[in-house]
User: What shape does this take?
Amino acid sequence: MSKQFSIDIDNYDFKESVKIQKRFSDLDPFAHANNAAQQNYFDIGRADYLSKLIEFKPFHLAPVSLLVVSYQTDFLHPILPQDEVEVKTSVYHIGNKSLKMFQVIKNIETGVVHSVCDSVMVAVSISDGVPSSVLFPPEWRVRLVEIEGREIN
Assistant: This one.
């Protein structure tokens, strides 16, 4: 693959994956899963991954939560109705207040990578109704290392 990504998508050991059930409404006039649907697939993978890390609560009830502040998606190969796909998700970097997450939509049968998404999420807290970034909780860092089975810089 000629494009350079944050990780080696062909050889990376993703620890978490979720199978995607496509819907008829996901398809464009060419019978491909449209770009918005694929971004929803990444959201499903992200939510599944994060459910192992944090308990989802409304922002005003959670002392700290995560917010997507940036993502870049590359659509490499179309997803057709007959393609069985899964979203594989990994956190590859943890900073002081943020994490970087990499995801692929991969064909379960052929191994073809259809799309990739590289995103940044920031730890936030809401005080006085105003969200602000906060330090990444140390217990989250420990849990991410457990999930990934390796140290994360």
Q: What stands out?
A: The first strand starts at residue 16 and ends at 20. Strands lie at 16-20, 65-75, 85-94, 98-107, 113-127, 130-133. The mean pLDDT is 92.
